[in-house]
Write a structure and sequence with these properties.
81 residues
Amino acid sequence: MPNVVGTIVKLLIASLIVGIILKFMDLDAVGFLRWVASSFRDIIGFFGDFFEWALGPILIGAVLVVPIWLIFFLIGKAKGR
């Protein structure tokens, strides 16, 4: 069984060091969490915009690609592959 107390002490020391560095950079926990949330929203928004933009061309292409693929797939099955 791992040394639970040792692990907790190591985590506390690492948290203290990181906290001191962030404090030195004039960052606080609330500001950091706001930045993370804002970045997450920006990333989700980017992918949402991308999929909204890409959906039309994907559907138009699928109207042509899927039937052609299906024909070749069925021909291959008929030949025994």
